[in-house]
Amino acid sequence: MTQRxxxxxxxxxxxxxAILVDDAGNVxxxxxxxxxxxxxxxxxxxxxHPDTWVEALCTATADxxxxxxxxxxxxxxxxxxxxxHGFVPLDGAGEPIRPAKLWCDTSTxxxxxxxxxxxxxxxxxxxxxxxxxxxxxxxxKILWLKRHEPKNFARLHRILLPHDFLNYWLxxxxxxxxxxxxxxxxxxxxxxxxCEPAMQRIDDGLxxxxxxxxxxxGIVGRLRAQAATALGLRPxxxxxxxxxxxxMGAIGTGNVIPGVATVSLGTSGTVYAYSQEPIVDEANxxxxxxxxxxxxxxxxxxxxxxxxxxxxxxxxFNLNNFKLNRSAESVGPGAGGLMxxxxxxxxxxxxxxxxxxxxxGYSKATHTVEHFxxxxxxxxxxxLAYGFNRMREMGIAPKEVRLTGGGSRSPIWRQILxxxxxxxxxxxxxxxxxxxxxxxxxxxxxxxERDAGASIADLCAIHVKLDxxxxxxxxxxxxEAYRELLGIHNDLSAALRPVFARHRRFVSTR
Length: 510
What we know:
By secondary structure, this protein is an alpha/beta fold. 39% of the residues lie in helices and 20% in strands. It contains 17 helices and 24 strands.
């Protein structure tokens, strides 16, 4: 009998990854395709063409099948994880009108501010949908199109998110599930229904441009013949609802029960945790009130700059990962007074779209590879620790943090996070949590077809395994040091926010 497999796809900002798993939770094969952003755009503009994602999806799938030495007929179902918040505008023929504006695009900050003001202020916006919808969210991108490209807006027939677009290419069906939809800033996360007043502030006809909402545990459609041929798979297999990369990362790290949090160390950084009830940050809106992709909720903090900091230091000092880690290990907490505010692409949390990178404490003594390496890990970690503590204040009490993303492979970075969070951290054996989560959700969708009571937690227990060799536990002395450093970090960020806004006009676009 041919081995049965499930395919998970993670379509991200820098690459698309594919993973094949079997019923026993074994990883059979994987593939990955790298790509970049569209070059030559103005400051703050971050865009990709959806065709790039489709091409990468096909290549990564072929590579995964080849690595697994499996025929495409072995794949029973597939699921797609995609970068959140992107805006894919389609015309009446179902074709992209223009490239997609991505989650990291900060050019729509004026539109985001105007939408919040029109709602009656941040607090009113949070009361309305559960989220204040900063520039990274999809809502402001739609208003940007209406203001800056009115001819394109006039052609706008359907609004999809990146993973929805791939689902559409795979199945011919246009739909959104609640998890990714909650990142538009237009969904009331408490009721899982569209907020029509928020939509009407953008355009009276906006609601009609959104596809139907479906349950996150459902099947969006069946693989159409043309897509099956391109992928080398059987036509008619199930394509699950999929979800945003953070929602899929939660599934792929087993973050589907209370007491677990996930931290992703990639291009962006996220901290998120499972909740059986909606968690709304009414105090300041910094914690995103998302739905998850299992039918529950996923309070989340996102920072835009994580591995960008270490990549900068690596390129500046010509370091590989081994040398970077060795350098960071040789300096204690606080990096001798060198602190990084890593707002290289602006920042989402805190909401500082005009932000830039700032090094505090630069001196002759700290002008070393070692100090810069340590500070490049500590800066993003302190930003994530701020969000972790905010979640604690809101009643989320994780006993363990599960790490995913490229930065999680660094032992010293894991220890910094354990100390900054004052919580044990550990990696899963599968580093690509979002791709694995998509595969698990695909299996869950087909099992729910047969048994509506099929449990996603039971499937995670099979597929998600912890790598105990990576576990880091907090040290009391370092915990205290990072508590003080976090206070300095937060004060520095708050003090510089008005300065960033004044400084913006002098920032080079090259």
